[in-house]
Amino acid sequence: MLSLTIPRAALRSAAVPRQFAAASVRNASTKSIYEAVGAIVPEKREQLAKLKSDYASTKLGEVNVGHVLGGMRGLKCMLWEGSVLDSESGITFHGKSIPDTQKVLPTAADVGHKGKEMLPESMLWLLLTAKVPTADEAKALSSELNQRGTLPDYLNKIIDTFPKDLHPMTQFSAAVTALNMNSKFAAAYSQGVKKTEYWQSTLEDSIDLIAKLPAIASRIYYNVFGLGDGVQKIDPNMDLIENFTTQIGFGDSEGLIDYLRLYIAIHGDHEGGNVSAHTAHLVGSSLADPYLAYGAALNGLAGPLHGLANQEVLGWSLELQKAVGESPSDDQIVDYLWSTLKSGRVVPGYGHAVLRQPDPRFTALYGFCESRPELKNSSIVQLVKRLSKVAPPVLKEHGKTKNPFPNVDAASGCVLYSYGLDQFKFYTVIFGISRAIGALPQLVFDRMLGLPIERPKSISMDALFAELKK
Questions:
Q1: Which residues are the signal sequence here (predicted)?
Q2: Which domain holds residue 398?
């Protein structure tokens, strides 16, 4: 059962999880993820202490009425360690751009598997430690995730009771939340663990949850769509994505496996202000365990202005294809774009809340499409690529967007569709597997640094007017 209010024992325990206690017997040249995270704790705490002592009163900007009324957009008021999003230069993960990570993070080939894309396990390591893992470290993390990936019997029973027509994201969120019964953080907190050690059991929970997300998703996929193996079999010789694609019945699709490696890796973290990441941080700031925090994040991800966008883009693109055919002229595409805009609709997949340049995630997915012969023969992929050239001038002329370039949603769904994964309602679940590798590491940092509960001050319109008259 869910335990939302956890009693706190008077006795404090400094017990160290098994993985930390065993550190001394490991080969010093290859760290476990627990040792690697533990190694950066003093440095990160020192950084925070210096910021507090030397710069606490330094201004980062001013709050105006537009910020209050506009969803706080653009306000620099949240600490997020994993990634930084700049309007011009794009996203960096601990200082590394997407092209950088594609060059330096261990790939499937580096750990002895087919495929050339970086492993999500490698990105998870980078986000947790700010360091690039070795191939051995990435492989060891992959192995650990496999060992933790089996679902408990009670959770399988819960998932199997969901109505088949209950949206997959609703099922996904509920299943993740139900895992909190096994939370190591909740158990440690109830035993009075020291505040400085909160991060350890939070890391344990986070690794457990990331490991189990593919199995949760694949069981939902099987129950709703009748596809996949139905048993979430885990092969210890496969990486995380190989196992997931096999569980949903696409284990023989080398292209989809490699695409999902890239997709999961680059969708994982996108700074902290987006709805899903911010929700995980906000709920986690109350010291809710990672299962409760990420279950809440998934509810935000399910919204049509956030994670649901990729299926909306694909739906619109297929409508376009139906209207203009598989080999339209540029003029036909332009006419359809204008008909969409003049009807009061937006062109989905274009624009971004922060970026004022092409989304580097779109560029990475575009590059993947260019490298795969089967995608060069996909009419919908080719149409989406043509749109990326034709749409920006139309949107500039229309004049109602600050960024007329394609975002990641413009490309992500059409590739899944081309590989035969055409159940639109499942797309956001896949996004949910990915976003965990960004949101949960930040929860570890939140506990590592002892960040306080998030509690911004709100104000009413009457109070705003009163302030403005002063």
A1: none
A2: 309-418
Give the helix ranges, DSSP H, for 56-197.
65-69, 98-104, 120-129, 135-148, 153-161, 168-178, 184-190
CA distance 427 to 417: 10
Which among 250, 209, 115 is positioned nearest to 435, based on CA atoms? 209
Q: Which tens digits make up the pLDDT trace of 124-163?
A: 999 999 999 999 999 999 999 999 999 999 999 999 999 9
pLDDT at 432 over 70: yes
User: How many Å apart are CA 183 and CA 209, to the nearest integer?
Assistant: 10
The residues that are catalytic are 306, 352, 409
Strand partners, 97: 92
| 327: CATH | 1.10.230.10
* Residue 394 within any structural domain of the chain: yes
How far is Cα 20 from Cα 199, in angstroms, rounded to an integer?
12
> Is residue 27 pLDDT above 60, yes or no?
no
Q: Which tokens in the block code for residue 134?
A: 């070795």
- CB-based contact 116:108 (threshold 8 Å): yes
